[in-house]
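Running this now, will post back.
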Amino acid sequence: MIITRLRLKNWRNFRELDVRLAEVTYVIGPNASGKSNLHDVFRFLRDVCKPQGGGLQAAVAKRSGIRKLRCLHARKNPEIRIEVELSDPITNKNWEYLLEFKSMTKDRVAISREEVRCEGKIFLVRPNENDLIDRELLTQTHLEQIQANAEFREIVEFFSSITYLHLVPQLLKYSEMIGGRVIEDDPFGQGFLERIALSTNKTRTSRLNKIKKALKAAVPQFDNIQFSKDKAGRPHLEAFYSHFRPKAGWQSEEHMSDGTLRLIALFWSLLDGDGVLLLEEPELSLNEEIVRQLPRLIDHANKSRKTKRQILITTHSNALLSNSAIDFEGVIVLEPGLEGTTGRSVNKSETAALSAGLPISDVVLPKTNPSNVHQMELF
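Update: finished.
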């Protein structure tokens, strides 16, 4: 299943947004235009679907309340609305889910509308009779209620499978020194090694062999990678490099470069899971030529899977967007304005230039540059 269309009202940067999504979608825009906040819509839906420790109230509270979620430009009709259209190529079903909510009290929100449709059939429309009798029911979505979502549970399972990756190498290298609990859902990769440890030995070996092959082409002197556990049972990744000191041995993750760790996490994520994968700035810490090859690698990895997954990528990278493997119909351009950020696909003039062979980095990306960036000074 993939998300084909997203509509937002009063969500963070977006007073109104209506965009179509492709199997692999690249989201570009200036700093603070809302790229991360667009990703967060899907993380929010995932959090709502959690049967334990989740739900609408928890998802809103996790984001510091509805005041932080509601667009600053919202005036009349201050409800937040999320509408998602989904398509399942296996069953040929097209689903629609709508959630609209508003403040109920200082610390709680209430549902204004919740709807589920599929191929013209209505599965859910709220508020319903029960909601009108007991208004407390409107504090919970039917996504989070197992007894209420049986007819559309495949949507719940789909939202629940959404994963996000923005690995911060230092959290992985120095996790023992930093200590403390891992943030829920581990968005920054502090528990990445534990995720690898949870896979079966057969699966882990197969994936690491594929990662080893890719790393040999990207990392100088890299020769091998393996999974291990120390005497205390803590998981580790170890790399072996061809070196002038042949007995230098294996090096664990704290000795790996930031770029190598981000590549390993990226490769593992492409091989792990079937749900939507949200990648935030995958170009960070990587050599420019490696970045240039990422769209081709992502496309090839996706086509090699039994079940293709949808991937949403936010990026600023000129190198990444210069790759001809990117389908320009899968590009969303965010444009901040006085009334919030809007989003669009490539326009007619851009399409003509891209069809003629020019890269997205030359045609579309320059339009996201701040207009006064050349005047930027400290003194």
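Residues 266 and 282 are 8 Å apart (CA to CA). More later if anyone needs it.
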